[in-house]
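[Automated response] Your request has been received and processed.

Submitted sequence:
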Amino acid sequence: DASTGKPIEEFAICYGYQFSNRERIYWSDDAPVPYSGGEYLYLESEPKSAHFLQVVAAGYEPQTSRALSSTEGNVQLDFELQSGEGPSGIVVTSEGKPVADADVGLGTPERRIFFRNGQLDRNQNQALMTRSDEAGRFRFNPLRDEYFLIVILHEEGFAEVSKEELAKNEEIVLQPWGKLRGKLLEGNTAVGGQEVSYWPKLPRSPLRQECVWGYRYKTKSDEDGTFEFDRAI
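Generated structure:
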């Protein structure tokens, strides 16, 4: 503990690595390895351009090691963790009213958001997920020191916010949903039962491309050829 100097009894170690000529750290999909008593021993024998260790503990900000070379042999790394909380915010309507029970997804390059028909797809989603409380507040556990994108979905609307935007303002205002309607014709004849897809063309953003699988909409045309997408961005 950076403030008290006392050992942190319960913590875990995450493992990451880099490829040659790439800045991004690739973190293992395996669960962090738990340790207790303030001490750890980590063995690594697979050569990589660089290795990284990261310590995570409840109530503390994660801390990442320097880049470690495969040729260094035995290394001693001590960590001093600062107390801290994970990303949090308050969801409000355009009138400033708190929004309860909003779905909140946090996507990273390793845990991407899967979005279908204006909803977070809970079957295929890899993102961290939570919901806002009665005061509109949501919280996540402390994260690795990486960038992320938060997507919020509710009947009242939709919002998207980056790590930097959240740091500037914890209040997130929902944008009202759009609605897309149309009619499918072959010549002058209505075509029913036909699958119709909608892929919103959003402004290009490296953060969005890395943290979101895609904003997918699918439906089928009715007997008279009409189709409709609610909860459209």
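Summary generated for your ticket: Residues 163-168 form the longest helix (6 residues). The chain is about 5% helix and 40% strand.
If you did not submit this request, please reply to this message.
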